[in-house]
Amino acid sequence: MRTPGSQSSLHRANLERVVRAVRMAGSLTQAEIARSTGLSAATVSNIVRELKDGGTVEVTPTSAGGRRARSVSLSGDAGIVIGVDFGHTHLRVAVGNLAHQVLAEEAEPLDVDASSAEGFGRAEALVERLIVTTGISRQKVVGVGLGVPAPIDVESGTLGSTSILPGWTGINPGDELSRRLGVPVYVDNDANLGALGELVWGSGRGVGDLAYIKVASGVGAGLVIDGRVYRGPGGTAGEIGHITLDESGPVCRCGNRGCLETFTAARYVLPLLRPGHGADLTMERVVQLAREGDPGCRRVVADVGRHVGSGVANLCNLLNPSRVVLGGDLAEAGELVLAPIRESVSRYAIPSAARQLTVLPGALGGRAEVLGALALVLSEMGDSTLLEGALTAGAPAFT
User: pTM for the whole thing?
Assistant: First the structure.
């Protein structure tokens, strides 16, 4: 029996620290593991050897700073994780392993607002199809990350705003998908998952604090503080779209007037341009036309950027992030939208906060949320199953 403070408890705690560091990073050299965990190089070397013997990790030769090193990653067959991203107009599913390798990925159009039952049915079918595609046993699935385009109530697990997904009223998305797939499901909103995706794989790598801004049919922010997504006690942190810009402005779906969303979201912006560009105009097309020099589209994109910058300036004054990552279709506009954002930040944010801020486009495009869903499982899953092989393989002296 392990007791707190015993050698066996300390040993297991060190095993967990190493596995957790590798699980979140995808792969690390032994020197990087030592730095991130605070363990000595000798302890890390012993633990990595033990985990390798137990089949938990794989070790491959690499180089770091011009010197030979060993890269440590979780075993490719230690388990698979699944990401499911519901957008308002699409469904995207990805299957990856614990070494951060995406094994299969597919997206299809879907009117998510219309029916939760249809959405979950389509998601279940697509997940099953991709599992078959990978050829990996279904028993290897350790969890599913699920993203929805609405706030999630932390206590109940239900949607926090029925005005955003009216067809999902009273639904607990995690419970429903878990019932269908028979595995644990971890749920978060799309902005938080976009932040996680960019933090682990994209423009936020190596940064401990950032804001991921997604401008689509709505406007939301995923906030990362000290390396972790901050959700707030009720799960609604980051609702930047409902910062008031003009209290006499248009009525927002939240019931207030002049929210940032009413000046930037696609549902409000596209009607300004459709008389001259057709009823089927999309934000993706607006961005494309702006890049090609269309004056109306360029003006609208710049205006959206200035308004988003006002919201970002508020974030700077409150949280002082070092990086803001812009996601969604709007990010493809590049400097056409980023320059106006920076201009507003420079004008409205505290100078010291503005100087420390870097504004970048997302590196993952439309994949940010589904990759964030994979990262959500990797961050929330426990280490017990992963450690079974190492703990039963005959551990060396305690470290």
Answer: 0.85
